[in-house]
Amino acid sequence: MAPPTMDIRMIKDVLRLKLHGGLSHEAIARSLSVSKGVVTKYVALAGAAGLNRWEAVEPLGQAELERRLFGTSAEQRRVAQPDFARVHVELRRKGVTLTLLWEEYRAAHPGERTWGFTQFCEHYKRYARTLKRSMRQQHRAGEKLFVDYAGPTLALADGARGQVFVAALGASSYTFACVTADQSMRSWLGAIGRALRFIGGVPQMIVPDNARALIAEPDRYEPRANDTVLDFARHHDVSILPARPYSPQDKAKVESAVQVVERWILARLRHQRLADVRAADLAVSELLALLNGRRMQKLDATRASLFAAIDAPALRPLPTQPWTWARWKAVTVHIDYHVEVEGHRYSVPHALVGTKLEARIGDALVELMHRGERVAVHARSDRRGGFTTRDDHMPAAHRAHKDWTPQRLIHWGASIGASTGRFVTTMLERHRHPEHGYRGCLGLLSLAKRYGPTRLEAACAKAIEIDAVYYRHVRDILARGTDRVSSAGTDAPADAAWVSPAHDNVRGPGYYH
Predict the structure, then answer these.
(1) What is the CATH code of the structural domain delimited by 144-314?
(2) CA 505, 510, 512, 513: dihedral to nearest 10 degrees?
(3) N or C: more exposed end of the chain, with fewer CB within 10 A?
C-alpha cells in the first residue's frame, strides 16, 4: 500500500478524537481542517488493522502505527522484492539506468508478481533516503578520485608531525592513505601519484579542495590550477576539478574517507612510537588492506570488492613513463640564443632569438617549450654564470668558430711554416684567455686562402722580425707586397743595421749630452 499522504501524528489525532473522544467524522474534519473523506479513510484503516480501541492505539509509536496501518498486505507480500542494495551499487556503473535495472529485475523473476516501473522507482527512492547523504550522490565508475589531507597529524619521534593524505574513489569508496612531511605542492602531487599507482589506473577527474599549494586562483566558477599541477594533469590525461570554496559537500566522499582513516588507522597507531615520516607511512600502508577489506554498513560488500567489480574496469591505464616533478618559468631568448634559468644559461635554436618560451625545470632536466612543443632539453646545471650550448643550436658561422681550439690553431699554423706557427702561438699567448685571439688566427686563415701559404709564411716572418704580432700587420705586409720585396733580394739584408739619414731636423745622440 502507498505511504500515508498525511502526517502520522495527524492520523493518530484522528483516531484519538474518534476512538477516545467519540466525535463524529464531520466534527473531526472541522477540528483538524481536513476533509471528511480523509477521516473516513484512516478510521477504516484502523478498523482493518484491528485497532478499534484507543487503548490499543495510544501506546504505539509513529513507526509502529504506520506499519500497522500501512503494512504490506498478503497480496503485496507475494510481490518479488528487488535487491535495492545491488540496484544502488549498479547505478554507479557508466550507462546503467533504473529502466535497465527494472527490466533485469523483471527478467530475473519470470512468472512471479513484480513491481511496475513507477513502483520500482518509488521503492528505490525510499531505500536511498535511508542511506547517508554522501551515499546518495550518484558517482559513476572510474569517474572521480577525491583527495584531501586529514586534520589530525601523527606525532613522530624526531619531533616532526606527519601529514596524512587520503584519497577515495567515488563509486566504490576504495581508499588510499599515506604520510608526507608537509602539505607543499610537491607533497600533494607526489601523494596523488602514489594514489594513482595504488588503484592501478587513472580516473576521469581528480577532485581536491582549494589548497593554495595546488590552485593558483581559487574561484567558485573558474578556478585556475598551478602550472605544475596542470603539467601533472596533462601527463596523466586527467582533469583537475577543485571543489567549490567552502563547499565540503562537493567532496563528501573523501570527507567520509578521512573519518574512516582516522577511526581505523590513526586510532590504531596512537600508542605506537613512529620514528619518522617513512616509518609512519609504512605503518599506515600496512593497515590499508584491513580498511578496504572491512564490510560496509549499508552495502553488503567491502570497498575492495566494489573496487574490483566497478571502478577497476573503468579506469584508464597509467602512463608508460612516470611523471617527474618540475616547475615552470617564462623566459625570453637573448641575442646570444640562450635563456637564463636560475643564473645558468641554456641554448635554444638560434632562429628563436627574441621569442618568449616556457622553461620546465625538473630535478635533472631543463626543457624549453615553444607553443607546447619542446625545442630544447639540457641536463640541469647549478653553476651560476655558466653556459650549456649545443652545436646544432648555433648559426653555421658560430659552429665553425667553436670548432677551433688553441692546439688546433697552432697545428694549422705550423703546417704552413715555422714562422706562421710561431706567429699564431704568440697571438694566443698575448691574451689572458686564448679565446680572445681566435678571431685574429681565423683572420690569418682567410689570408692564406687569399694570398697563398707561401706568401703568408713570408709575411709572418717579416712581422716577427719587426715585433709586429697582430693580424693587421700581416695583412698590411701582404697588401703592400713587402713580403715579395724582401724575398727578391732588392731590399737591404735582413740583418743589416739601420742607420738614420742625415737631416737638419734630426737631433742625434749628441743633443742629449
Answers:
(1) 3.30.420.10
(2) -160
(3) C
Domain ranges in the chain are: 8-71, 77-130, 144-314, 326-396, 404-488
- Sign of the Cα torsion 311, 317, 321, 326 reads negative
CA dist., res. 417 & res. 439, Å (int): 20
List Cβ neighbours of 492 (8 Å cut-off, separation of 6 or more). none
User: How far apart, in whole angstroms, are the C-alpha atoms of residue 441 and residue 149?
Assistant: 66
Alpha carbons 214 and 260: distance in angstroms, whole number = 25
Distance between CA 421 and CA 464 in Å, rounded? Answer: 11
Amino acid present at 332: T
Consecutive H or E run containing 161: strand 161-169
CA pair distance 345, 337, nearest whole angstrom: 9
What is the Cα–Cα distance from 164 to 177, expressed in whole angstroms?
7
Note down pLDDT in tens along the chain; length 513 residues: 444 557 777 888 888 888 888 888 888 888 778 888 888 888 888 888 888 888 888 888 877 888 788 765 444 446 888 888 888 878 877 667 888 888 888 888 888 888 889 888 888 888 887 765 444 456 788 888 999 998 888 889 888 899 999 999 988 889 999 999 999 989 999 999 999 999 999 998 898 888 888 887 766 666 677 788 888 888 898 888 887 766 666 667 778 888 889 888 888 888 788 889 999 999 999 999 999 988 887 677 888 998 998 889 989 999 998 888 888 889 998 877 889 888 898 989 988 888 899 888 888 889 998 887 889 999 988 888 788 888 888 777 666 656 667 888 888 888 888 989 899 888 888 766 565 577 788 888 888 888 999 999 999 998 898 888 888 889 998 988 888 775 444 444 444 556 666 666 667 666 665
Count of H-run helices and E-run strands, the chain: 23, 15
> pTM (2 decimals)?
0.53
Residues 269, 280: Cα–Cα separation, whole Å: 9
Q: Which residue has the cell 608526507?
A: 180
